[in-house]
């Protein structure tokens, strides 16, 4: 095998850190809708900040192409009888409601075949609500769900496979079938009075406070987790995030919240985690929640782990070996060659959260070699995400990002014993100046995924 052939072998899908069996849709897609995490966007129309940034149909297109399955439309009275979408009482620009619906019609199912939830924040007069209803029905046509599946309201959601009160126009109200917005008082009130198809929305701070407390002795799942077994919960960023920053979605997923809405226009760790959560299962925007977040008899509490089916304790062994041809990050610096270091982060239940990093290597972006071993204990693997971050070390200021890759722990391929001939070992040694990686317990290659990692990174997993 030639050096080029060996590189092709290393970069093949079978050698990827991401399990190719999780690339297509592989989960049961016939469970009730509330049994899934749903990729969701907040103020989807915004391209930048929440105060004066532009609104655009392009923002909806970008979100839908990324398999977002819940988009938000803030609807207000517009000129000439046409409703508009914008962040009310701010300087953000306006976009016609009908133009947004046209964009949704065209792009809703380009990446995923599964349902898109339109979250309408309605501030329109009765007259313009009727116009909204007309645009929804005339533009979306048969793709708009206008009556319960089976023609009768069942007692559970279908699966993905098939203060001042505002007066609501009947024409618009009749289009709301499965996700009727209601005010949340408390869990007991919701259990006794809310129908399954009624959905509450929570500001991030309130949702965090509804989560499990640090010291709980009850031998049952937290009330929020039980609520999310029967109802849909939508979480949205606090109004104080005027720069369109995002909160950490992981604690909300730990509580079983399905619609954890983020500002898709803002890159960063939070969106990395969101993309990773929805990376498997054909990138369809729906991920089946673990059974312990769906079973009414569950006693799961992410902050107070006890013996139960969620405890599938595993040890993750990672060896960061090397990287090749890392790009120059800041060409304005006198020294533009990177001093790379790699950090491995775990996100999940509190007991699993961890971070470890390699030493940095001076002036070598071409073929840095770390050979650094890490070990992590994962208590609840079904909720854990693993993030690899390559940075340009800087002693005087914050490090610059070189590249990253994030994926669910359960979608990682274990390392496999590599058996190759001595001739190939010598050939690889001459090429990469490192031989021991092929004699260790396993070898996986991390390459670019959705522009997250712009360089190859070698690692061992076990």
From TrEMBL:
Substrate binds at residues 201, 234. The keyword Calcium applies. Residues 294-424 form the C2 domain. Its EC number is 3.1.4.11. SUPFAM superfamilies: C2 domain (Calcium/lipid-binding domain, CaLB), PLC-like phosphodiesterases. Ca(2+) 3 binds at residues 43, 72, 74, 121. One of its GO terms (biological process) is intracellular signal transduction. It catalyses: a 1,2-diacyl-sn-glycero-3-phospho-(1D-myo-inositol-4,5-bisphosphate) + H2O = 1D-myo-inositol 1,4,5-trisphosphate + a 1,2-diacyl-sn-glycerol + H(+). It comes from the Eukaryota. InterPro entries: C2_dom, C2_domain_sf, PI-PLC_fam, PLC-delta1_cat, PLC-like_Pdiesterase_TIM-brl, PLipase_C_PInositol-sp_X_dom, PLipase_C_Pinositol-sp_Y. Ca(2+) 4 binds at residues 337, 339, 363. Gene3D superfamilies: C2 domain, Phosphatidylinositol (PI) phosphodiesterase. One of its GO terms (molecular function) is phosphatidylinositol-4,5-bisphosphate phospholipase C activity. The active site is at residues 42, 87. Binds 3 Ca(2+) ions per subunit. Two of the Ca(2+) ions are bound to the C2 domain. Ca(2+) 5 binds at residues 392-394. Keywords: Calcium, Hydrolase, Lipid degradation, Lipid metabolism, Metal-binding, Transducer. Its cofactor is Ca(2+). GO terms for cellular component: plasma membrane. PROSITE patterns: C2 (PS50004), PIPLC_X_DOMAIN (PS50007), PIPLC_Y_DOMAIN (PS50008). Residues 172-294 form the PI-PLC Y-box domain. PANTHER family: 1-PHOSPHATIDYLINOSITOL 4,5-BISPHOSPHATE PHOSPHODIESTERASE DELTA-1, PHOSPHOINOSITIDE-SPECIFIC PHOSPHOLIPASE C FAMILY PROTEIN. This is Phosphoinositide phospholipase C. The lineage of its organism: Eukaryota, Metazoa, Chordata, Craniata, Vertebrata.
């Amino acid at each position: 095998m030639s050096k080029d052939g060996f590189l092709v072998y290393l970069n093949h899908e079978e050698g990827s850190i991401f399990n190719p069996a999780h690339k297509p849709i592989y989960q049961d897609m016939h469970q009730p809708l509330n049994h899934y995490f749903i990729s969701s966007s907040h103020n989807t129309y915004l391209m930048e900040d929440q105060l004066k940034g532009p609104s655009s149909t392009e923002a909806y297109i970008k979100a839908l192409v990324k398999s977002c399955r819940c988009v938000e439309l803030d609807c207000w009275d517009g000129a000439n009888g046409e409703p508009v979408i914008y962040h009310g009482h701010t300087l953000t620009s306006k976009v016609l409601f009908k133009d947004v619906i046209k964009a949704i019609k065209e792009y809703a199912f380009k990446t995923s075949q599964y349902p898109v939830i339109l979250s309408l924040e309605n501030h329109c007069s009765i007259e313009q609500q009727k116009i909204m209803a007309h645009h929804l029905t005339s533009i979306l046509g048969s793709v708009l769900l206008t009556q319960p599946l089976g023609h009768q309201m069942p007692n559970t959601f279908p699966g993905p496979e098939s203060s001042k009160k505002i007066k609501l126009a009947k024409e618009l109200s009749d289009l709301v079938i499965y996700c009727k917005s209601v005010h949340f008082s408390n869990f007991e009130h919701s259990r006794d009075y809310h129908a399954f198809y009624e959905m509450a929305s929570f500001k991030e701070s309130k949702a965090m406070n509804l989560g499990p407390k640090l010291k709980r002795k009850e031998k049952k799942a937290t009330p929020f987790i039980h609520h999310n077994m029967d109802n849909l919960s939508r979480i949205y960023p606090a109004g104080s995030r005027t720069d369109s920053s995002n909160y950490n979605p992981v604690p909300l997923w730990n509580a079983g919240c399905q619609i954890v809405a983020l500002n898709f226009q803002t890159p960063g760790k939070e969106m990395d985690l969101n993309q990773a959560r929805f990376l498997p299962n054909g990138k369809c925007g729906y991920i089946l929640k673990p059974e312990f977040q769906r079973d009414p008899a569950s006693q799961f509490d992410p902050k107070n782990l006890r013996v139960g089916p969620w405890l599938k304790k595993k040890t993750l062994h990672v060896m960061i070996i090397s990287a090749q041809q890392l790009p120059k990050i800041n060409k304005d610096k006198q020294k533009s060659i990177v001093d790379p270091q790699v950090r491995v982060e775990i996100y999940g239940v509190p007991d699993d959260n961890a971070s470890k990093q390699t030493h940095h290597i001076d002036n070598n972006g071409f073929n840095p070699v770390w050979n650094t071993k890490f070990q992590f204990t994962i208590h609840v693997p079904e909720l854990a995400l693993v993030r690899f971050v390559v940075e340009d070390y800087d002693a005087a200021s914050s490090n610059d990002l070189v590249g990253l890759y994030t994926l669910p722990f359960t979608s990682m391929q274990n390392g496999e014993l590599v058996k190759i001939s001595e001739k190939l070992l010598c050939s690889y040694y001459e090429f990469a100046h490192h031989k021991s990686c092929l004699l260790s317990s396993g070898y996986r290659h991390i390459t670019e995924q959705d522009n997250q990692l712009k360089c190859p990174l070698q690692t061992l997993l076990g």
